[in-house]
Amino acid sequence: MKMKMKMKVRTIVSGYIILLPALIVMLMFNFYPVIWSFLVSFKETKAIDIKNSALYEIPGVFVGIENYQKVLDNDLFFKSIVNTGYFAIIFIPFTLLFSLLLAIYVNQKFKGVNFFRTIIFVPYIISVISSSLIFMTLFNTEAGFVNATLEFFGIQGISWLGDERLAMPVIALMSIWRRVGYFMLLYLAGLQNIPKSLYEAAQIDGANWLDKFRNITIPLLSKITIVIMVLLLRDALTIFQEVFVMTGGGPGNSTVTVPFLIYQEAFSYLRFGTAAAMSYILFVIAVIVILVQNKIIMRKGKVE
After folding, report:
1. Would you say residue 221 lies in a domain?
2. Do 33 and 89 fall into the same domain?
3. What is d(CA 170, CA 146) in angstroms, rounded to the nearest whole number?
4. Can you tell me the distance from the alpha carbon of 185 to that of 280, in angstroms, rounded to the nearest whole number?
5. Residues 173, 222, 212, 210: what is their CA dihedral angle, to the nearest 10 degrees?
6. φ, ψ of residue 44 in degrees (nearest 5)
7. Does residue 86 share a domain with residue 210?
8. Strand pairing of 61-62 and 43-44?
9. 300 and 245 assigned to the same domain
10. Does 266 fall in a domain?
11. Would you say residue 165 has pLDDT above 90?
């Protein structure tokens, strides 16, 4: 018995020793920056202070909640929240819809279906920078393919990325195009796990394709849909590179999102305290949205 206990303890200890390097890396590159930024959000920190500080030193002068007050008094911050919400309203529903429709289409058996699945997935593995440049070329005012097509049909070209009303939808369109293939595969995996006997039984009962879709497909994909919605919400709340490359926040701050504004505060204006405060306000907003989303989903589950 004692021998077995010693062997068990040795196994546990050796396991922790093996995990130790990975734990140290996680502490240094994940947990420490979170703690550092949280403490900096209560300080007035200058770039020179950071340059001259030691690795584990938190530079700056303590100012309490002053940074948070500055953020809440900043009209551009609230505009960035509205812009981020506007992006999410376009991005999340359309990505869900197109991912599901494409998954249903490629779930059928036809010649070249595997090639078609690959083509749809390819944009996901293209870098955000490359995807942004592709769409900037397509929607270029002077020589873009979209405006050239419009002019072919006698319609005057549009300044897509120079229009405050259209710039954000173009960014959302690029984000949808880039991610739809990945979420299509998630839905495809869910569709292939639905027993065909359910559709056959519905067919015998006289159900049409809409009845099958509404009463079989949608309910049995609900768990996957919840996961996809959480992932899409994460993507919407961290939208940065697309804005940075395609519009730089313009025109007229119409595409300034919260992550982009945080970047500007920290690295353009060197206001690290307010940038950190914005980050934690965004974190609180994200937690509230997720909690509300989960509550709605749980309530819907109880009703069903």
Report:
1. yes
2. no
3. 12
4. 33
5. -40
6. -100, 110
7. yes
8. antiparallel
9. no
10. no
11. yes
Q: Which residue carries 């292939």 as its tokens? A: 192
Q: Do 292 and 206 belong to one domain?
A: no
Per the CB < 8 A criterion, the answer to whether 170 and 201 are in contact is no
How far is Cα 218 from Cα 225, in angstroms, rounded to an integer? 9
pLDDT band at 33; cut points 50, 70, 90: confident
Domain tally for the chain?
2
User: Number of H helices and number of E strands within the chain?
Assistant: 16, 2
Same domain, 232 and 194: yes
Domain range for 174 is: 79-252
Token pair, residue 266, equals: 């920290």
Specify whether 86 is located in the same domain as 193: yes
Exposed, middle or buried: residue 185 (CB in 10 Å: 0-12, 13-18, 19+)? middle
Cα distance from N-terminal residue to C-terminal residue, the chain: 52
The answer to whether position 103 is within a domain reads yes
pLDDT at 149: 92
Angle at 259 between CA 297 and CA 233, to 5 degrees: 15
CA distances from 29 to 85, 168, 283 (A): 29, 33, 18
pLDDT in tens, 171-230: 999 999 999 999 999 999 999 998 888 888 888 888 888 888 888 888 889 889 888 998
Q: What is the pTM of this model?
A: 0.88
